[in-house]
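Review box. Two proteins, two foldings.
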Amino acid sequence: MTLSLHAAGRRRLLSHSLKFATLALALSTAWVQPATAQTYPNKPIKLIAPFAAGGAADTVARILVPKLSEALGQPIIIDNRAGASGAIGSAFVAAAPADGYTLLINLGPPHQTVQFFTKGVKYDPVKDFTPIAQVATAPQVMVVPASSPFKSVADFTAAAKTPKALAYATSGSGSSQHLAGLLMAHKYKLSLTHVGYRGGAPALTDVLGAQTDAGILVLSNVLPYIQSGKLRALGLVENHRSKSAPSIPTLAESGLTGFSVPDTWVGVMGPKGLPPAIVQRLHADISKTLRNPDVLAQLQQAGYDVAEATPAQFGKQLADSTEIYRSIVNNSGITPE
């Protein structure tokens, strides 16, 4: 009888100990989560722009960073890591600790499409990143030098149906610009040669110098040259006009009936596994920054359409557009090299 009472007592003691340990763990977890949000950030943040200085991602980063640094209370260091259509900088972020101190500001495409063109990409564009905030859309426009004989889309397509291929410059393989050219060539039976650069800035230099027949480039980068008469805009590749330059028609409006590619976004992401508290803090402060009148004016003046999205909406858009572009690439018969 005595042994039975001792055994029962030990069982009760063990049960109480397990309940206490479970409660302690729950309380510690509940304490850690808000603490992460309260203490982050407590040191400078590195923002990787995976294209050359002067390109679209870099341009948006330099508009956002001053006010975003103020909101976060820490310096943000822009680090341009160009190459491989953004894959070098993106791979760096994918491999970084998920602590919120290494972030990526990128364009999509080529974020989700470089895998279709380049072998050995060391990350999954959807699974290996945490969407934080879509900042804006970056309209893409087809341009020719002012000295070009092509005064319209009809002139360009007529010339592209002759045996001699026309060359078009873009910021790199896998960009929405490249994909727009692929879709154009496939849909309208045009003879086009893609010339990809390491970013929009060097591509723009060669288009201005008439080293290529045309360019499909980010509107924000070429708008000053369109306005000054050094470049001629043939049309936007999306299915709608840009708020920042409403006088420029789409290619569909200009004669390529039914032509368009999805919007190109500029967004901020982190490595996979970024704690929700950090994602929420960053998203809230980016949204606050985008509502700043000076930031909004600078983005619009540079040719961007501000287009916020929640992390969940951003993630869905990333996954859905990946499949749309996969179809364009497959129809073009392209395989990774």
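Next protein.
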Amino acid sequence: MTVSSAPSRATLPARMRAAVMTAPGRFEVREAPRPAPGQGQVLVAVDGSGICGSNLPVFEGRPWFAYPLAPGAPGHEGWGRVVAAGPGAEGAFTAGARVAFLSGAAFAEYEAVDAAAALAVPAALGDLPFPGEPVACGVNVFRRARIVRGDVVAVVGIGFIGAVVARLAAAAGARVLAVGRRPFALDLAGALGAEPVPWGERGAVVEEIRRRTGGALCDVAVEAVGLQAPLDLASDLVRESGRLVVAGFHQDGLRTVDLCAWNWKGLDVVNGHERRREVMMDAMRGAAEAVADGTLDLARLVTHAFPLEAIGEAFAALRDRPDGFLKGVVRP
């Protein structure tokens, strides 16, 4: 059944354009059948989808991935407008409602998504691109970290998630020390209310943080990269009885930790990731509110947009991080 006042099924195209990852580092834009919304689902005409650092391994290639991927995969940061509804979802959204959603095939013109995994975008955002899923991830990390006014917080890695967490922490009244390698990222951190800390040799960074905190180190350290060295550095920056928050997505192998130091310091170690849909949707609502009230400026954080035909260039930019790059989105 269609959404009330939305285009009828007869007016929707039977086929759509979708990006297909055919091999490591290779995309083709192909025609594919337009999905139909199933039970409890809505059909979204996709306005765009962010590209996520967690997708670099499948772009670069690993032995455990099989190609080609499904049309639209691995896009999971989508937003768009509801154009039809399946059984049980007819009243979930008004016709043409602008939504952000949780999904897995948003590098395409259309995607069918569970209505419970879609959020109406506040009117205050206008037509601003809103990749709700990654902003929600940043909100969720911030919430799990339990950062409060007066905390001293180190954020190790100023990519998109690190930048969101740094901004939310600064807005909450924390003192934020943002550790980054790129001059652009350090300048951005300063504009977000954090104190930039150039990332060099591990011991030198620890001593610099120790100097800036009068020897106390940090109440909370957020590792936001997903590699061994940043995890080691973040572990060093937490004071005794502080919190180490692992926000980076560690997917390229096993990690080693100095468990003796963790034990001795009495650290609380927090996994910054969330898999419960209802929790992620609540974080997405918080993300939309933070953008609507001006706490988060997505116009500053989403730095690059690419057409669907240039999706390979988008992933290459994510991999290479050219100057000025923080977050890219792909627009069909």
